[in-house]
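Chain and conformation:
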Amino acid sequence: MAQNVMSKIAFLMLMIIGIMSGNPFEARAKFNPIKFELDSLDNGLKIIYCVDRTAPIVATVVHYKVGSRDENPSKTGYAHFFEHLMFEATENIPRASIDKYVQEAGGTLNAHTSYDETVYYFKLPSNYLNLALWIESQRMRKLKVDSVGVNTQKGVVIEELRMRYDNQPYGTMLMKMSERLFKGSSYGWATIGYIEHLEKATIDDFKGFYDNFYKPNNAILVIVGDIDIPETKKLVRSYFGIYPPSEIPTRNPFTISPLENNVEEVIKDSKAQLPAVFIGFRGPKIGEDDYYAMNILSDILASGESSRLYQRLVDKEQIALAASMFPLSLEYSGGIIFYAVAHPNKSLKKTKEIIFDEIKKIAQDGVSEEELKKAKNITESQFISGKKNVLEKAETLAKYQAYFNNPSLINTELEKYLSVSAEDIKRVAQRFLSNANYVVLYYHPNSYSD
């Protein structure tokens, strides 16, 4: 029973945060700089080409600079809704055919949405590159936003919302944390949005969202794999060059106020078999100097079984079955959420006290050179191994172009992590954790009392 419970909890955490763990003992791989070519069309589409002939495959990524933060606070969930609708039909692609075309070609496809982005990707045999480009060009401006597709995907997304919120342990955590940690800003709701907003949404609402954000000047196309760049440029122009220039997307100005008070809330959760505590802090936005120090600090404090929180809560005190963290890496702000899943009848308040005690130790005394070196080694290994797959390369190039207008960071960002000092760790611990306000969510099974 205990093993089954822990398996469910592990699966849940991975589902919510989508984190990938690296092997701290993995030998360092040699990192060869990644070569690419940046291009653009008159309509504003940015394109990145990268040749990788290790296998006869190609990956395409279309990164739209639209996420849940671009939504109206009274009309949330639209960005995530389009992640689904974009697999429906276009003017020239019949309904429910996109998956079929790609699978018959021996490829895979998927998409994801976050606070700041919506990203679509294909991986196919390289001789099917034209298929991926045709589908993406069709979806960019010729998507059918009609009653059949909208009603179908409304049902799918609303059912997904119910499954996440109502039928999963700790299912409301990310929404509640977003609402409290980023109150008053457009980061103040989880990407999936609110059921009532989607239920009320009209076709005109969705058409307005699509026409505002889904167009060439709000997108980055990345093609990585076994390609010939001059020939690929011709294909890109034939598929995407048909669209004329248009107005840049209209966006709500982003504002965020300081977190003025600590917030603590107790949630009775009938789906949770074990009590859990989630502690959220504001963090540096992606790309800031402190962002890299915070990532190293987070690994030392709460990533993996050798981390301080796991060693203290799970191994030494034996008050928790799991302890870790996950970041919210955002364009205009940031966050870090520590969590621990407690043993039955163990105190969540005591668990919280231990987490804050470990934070205080780092803020006062810093970290050891051994801890810092180990964390950097893990970061370096993950950074290098994450650039070997054609799809991972494509996603990373798109991210660096979208957030920093600098895809060259795929070769140089590692230096920012490796330059973090022990003093940097201590400083960010004081600024963002020890001397900052926070949000604590206690999840109690119905039979639990602290």
Observations:
- Residues 147-166 form the longest helix (20 residues).
